[in-house]
Amino acid sequence: xxxxxxxxxxxxxxxxxxxxxxxxxxxxxxxxxxxxxxxxxxxxxxxxxxxxxxxxxxxxxxxxxxxxxxxxxxxxxxxxxxxxxxxxxxxxxxxxxxxxxxxxxxxxxxxxxxxxxxxxxxxxxxxxxxxxxxxxxxxxxxxxxxxxx
Length: 149
Description:
With 149 residues, this protein is an alpha+beta fold. Helix content is 34%, strand content 23%. It has four helices and five strands; from the N terminus they run βααββααββ.
């Protein structure tokens, strides 16, 4: 009889106030370290989570402190899945890929890089629009590199 893979879940609820993304970063880093992630991947994860939480606070909940951001970390045997949930409608169309050179030279707003940064740092990133215009989330997956664990 084979054992079913165990998943450990950690949940954090954050106020919609900038600065509290650091709580999610620290929690995710602790879980990733317990799973055996290399320090470099832990840093990637912290940056991706911070970006996702800031987007949820600013865009999803529009800095409304009566609303909270939910962060659910699901640690499996070979991957960590993170959901960052807010009360927003989610995104309509995906933004166009940013022109890094134009941003670096001040020809474009330096903001708007978060989604692309997130995608570069994790193995999977999915933005899910909430039903009835409520409760969207971003789902991130970062895989444990078995050779280096």
